[in-house]
Design goal:
There is one protein chain. The protein has 133 residues and is of the alpha+beta class. The protein has a single domain (16-63, 81-130), classed as Trna Endonuclease, Chain: A, domain 1. The protein has helices at residues 18-35, 81-84, 88-102, and strands spanning 39-46, 54-60, 66-73, 111-119, 122-130. It has a 5-stranded mixed sheet, with helices on both faces. The radius of gyration is 18 Å and the shape is globular. It starts with 17 loop residues before the first helix and ends with a strand. Residues 1-13 have low confidence and may be disordered.
């Protein structure tokens, strides 16, 4: 027993962290995209250094389009839900990371930015949710 008679948590106690929830949402999004015919290119692409950006999933559509996917998970629809949480600043960081990724390709394919919103009622796929302009 710890201070005030409460049982202290041990390292063996299962903890659901924000990271675990996010990773599970990304796993579900990858499975969903692959079921839709998308081919996974990479996950969690990050630009080097501080202040850069990150892309949760980069996938290739059947037509060859390179798709940069942001995955958002919310437990409720308050404040607009998962999709609404991809605001202007987040979009700019994703676009920055996408441009960095594209610098390493010899030929730049058609691209788009999608959002996968993992909500309590299911998965919502917003194709071409925003653009780089």
């Amino acid at each position: 027993m710890g201070i005030l008679g409460y049982k202290q948590a041990s390292s063996s106690d299962a903890k659901i962290t924000t990271k675990k929830v996010g990773d599970a949402a990304e796993d579900a999004a990858c499975d969903f995209l692959q079921e839709q015919g998308m081919r996974l290119v990479t996950r969690n692409y990050r630009t080097p250094g501080r202040g850069g950006g990150e892309i949760d999933i980069i996938a290739r559509a059947p037509d060859g389009t390179l798709v940069f996917v942001e995955v958002r998970k919310r437990g409720s629809a308050r404040h607009g839900g998962a999709a609404a949480s991809v605001g202007f600043a987040k979009q700019r960081r994703i676009i920055f990371a996408a441009r960095h990724y594209l610098l390493h390709l010899q030929t730049v394919p058609p691209c788009r930015f999608d959002v996968i919103a993992v909500e309590p009622h299911g998965v919502e796929w917003l194709q071409a949710a925003f653009d780089a302009s």
